[in-house]
Amino acid sequence: MMKIKICALYFWGILFVFYTNTQAQQLSATLQIDTNAILVGAPLTISVKTIFPKEGKILQPQWNSNQLDTFEILQKQQPEQQMRGDWITLTQKLQLTAWDTGFLVISPIPLEVLMPNNDTLRTQSKPALIQVRTFAIDTTKGIQPITDPYKLPLTWRDYQYYLYYFLGVLAVVAMLFLAWWIWRKYYQKQQAIKQDAPPVPPNEEALTALQKLRSDQLWQQGLLKEYYSRLSEITRRYIERRYNTNALESTTSEIMSDLEKTDFPQEYITPLRNNLYQSDMVKFAKASPPTENHAQAFDFVQDLVEKTTPLTEKEENDEEIK
């Protein structure tokens, strides 16, 4: 008789365990709250636990917004997943708050799972009732005067924007100073190079310019105005540097008048006047001198530069010896 009782208890124990496991492994959604009463604006933590088959694809719940009924979702934690046989347990915590007072309801959380055969399994959690209280007001003390705004203690974060602004201004000033310093160094270097390099003598400058004018062959191309303009400028610049006159800014008559006060050779006065007048007529009156005059004007300027070039100290000593 005792053996029969033991076998019966054993059978019922196995049946109870099997029944419990079977009940545990069913599609379900559970909503848990850490408290059922909060102050307005205070945080409330809820935990949503769902159990569904591992071959299924969960469609809900999904929190695609920051609102859950009349509650505002402050924070969403990553879901925690556990595998138990052919079932998956998914647990996710959310932090909520509410700005309305009274008894507020968190609606049932729906759970939808799509199975491989396109069947949809559905269930939902139970609703939760939350009391949202406001701050207690002592009506026995009457109306109180408005208090001054509460001043929070300052931290370094309150000054970070001023710090960023100061650093930005400092960086701009540093870059401007660096640019000025580089420019100053470069400018001083260029000035030193210019000061160290001796000026080109007037005769060398004029002969180089004449050589360039000859190689350009302007009058051979019919460019008479350009040819005589450059020839006149070379002549005037040489006279200005050689005899210290303002020839570039003066008329032909003024140039000849100034040269009479210098040691300019008298035999070149008339040819120079004619040469400059001829250049003026081509530039301003569109005159067209005979072809032979083009080369003659060039040869005269070249001869003038060569004959009026001052002698060097060595050449003067050689002349005295002779």
Account of the 3D structure:
The protein has helices at about 1-25, 160-195, 200-215, 225-245, 250-260, 270-285, 290-305, 315-320, and strands spanning about 30-35, 35-40, 45-55, 55-60, 65-70, 70-75, 80-85, 85-95, 100-105, 110-115, 120-125, 130-135. It starts with a helix and ends with a helix. The protein is an alpha+beta fold. A hairpin with a 2-residue loop joins strand 7 and strand 8. Among the domains are: about 25-135, Immunoglobulin-like (Sandwich), CATH 2.60.40; about 200-310, no CATH class.
Distance between the termini: 163 Å
Largest sheet: 6 strands, antiparallel
The rough form would be described as elongated
CATH topology of the domain at 24-133: Immunoglobulin-like
Poorly predicted regions are 12-24, 313-322
Strand residue content: 15-25%
What is the overall number of helices? 8
Q: Roughly how many Å is the radius of gyration?
A: 53 Å
CATH class of the domain at 24-133: Mainly Beta
CATH architecture grouping of the domain at 24-133: Sandwich
The level of helicity is 40-55%
Report the order of strands and helices.
HEEEEEEEEEEEEHHHHHHH
Total beta strand runs: 12
Give the overall pLDDT as a whole number. 82
In terms of structural class, how would the helical and strand content be classed? alpha+beta
Summarize this, please?
The protein has 322 residues and is an alpha+beta fold. It is built from eight helices and twelve strands. The longest helix is centred in the middle third of the chain and has 37 residues, at 160-196.
Key structural traits:
disordered C terminus, 45% helix, 12 strands, 322 residues, 8 helices, 21% strand, alpha+beta, six-stranded antiparallel β-sheet, three-stranded mixed β-sheet, Immunoglobulin-like
